[in-house]
């Protein structure tokens, strides 16, 4: 069998990042040898502690190593200082820019016991990550009636097209996985979200470009629809089971992702990936959680699912499926749950249980 070695950068960052990223490494090392996959790891620094030690939050060495040596990476979390700190800015935001990781991908999936909804939730939000209001071009000026502040919302054809294409690819991959595991009942769909009834130029361009980019996926069995973002919020909270893939410009995607995470219980369950051409960084959605740091009670599942998600983008769907299945089985049985899930298991016990199932 063909064998492949993947080199993975490990960036634990701050707080519980230092507890969950080692769990991510263990899960990769535990994948069955029959997959023909091996991993090599490189430890890399970034975060607020790194900033306090060295004056830099994202060392150049970290960026260079990722660019030159790595196939993918895992990022834990970084603390944001409670008061603005001169010279400090978020290293993950900088990394997304430096590596052109233009998509933020957030799957939201319920397992029995983790949601109040009767029907299973299994959707993914694909958020554009480089433009929209987040270009941070703001200004404030004085007028006779007091101050006025303005921000630029920039939408481009290029960014809209590539994010929609990624959403189409993800929809196809999810369908492949459902077909190969005999899951029926859901078919590949991409919902484009926007507010083009009000913002006819910016969101209008996003909408029409996404439609165009998704057209050829339709011949491969992906249905495409669209929804105004406010009505999407309403339906997402009433019938989340109806969604498959949602593609959104930066701001709506940001808001929808956090909202959707709330549908399935703990922050400790929700993974994400920052994805560009041929590179992916898995990152749990939670922060550094200083309140539980060092207590061995953080939920490692968001990280373990982020590991699987990274593997999907490195075209290792089989390996990813093994991890997802073991995590779901742990949650369904409910014997080894961390305190945020109402259980009493330590981080390490949750990890051991999942490793046993693999
Ligand atoms: P940051 O500034 O790094 O975002 P934060 O104080 O906002 O830190 P978060 O990590 O965003 O903390 O978490 C919010 C709450 O959710 C905290 O009370 C934290 O304990 C809890 N939490 C977050 N992640 C986990 C996890 N993996 N397991 C258990 N509880 C978690
Ligand atoms: Mg936080």
Automatic annotation (TrEMBL):
InterPro entries noted in UniProt: IsoCit/isopropylmalate_DH_CS, IsoPropMal-DH-like_dom
Enzyme Commission no: 1.1.1.87
Pathway info: Amino-acid biosynthesis; L-lysine biosynthesis via AAA pathway; L-alpha-aminoadipate from 2-oxoglutarate: step 4/5
GO terms of biological process kind: isocitrate metabolic process; lysine biosynthetic process; tricarboxylic acid cycle
Catalytic activity: (2R,3S)-homoisocitrate + NAD(+) = 2-oxoadipate + CO2 + NADH
SMART domains for the chain: Iso_dh (SM01329)
Domain of life, per lineage: Eukaryota
EC category: oxidoreductase
Family: Belongs to the isocitrate and isopropylmalate dehydrogenases family.
Protein name, entry field: homoisocitrate dehydrogenase
Organism: Aureobasidium pullulans
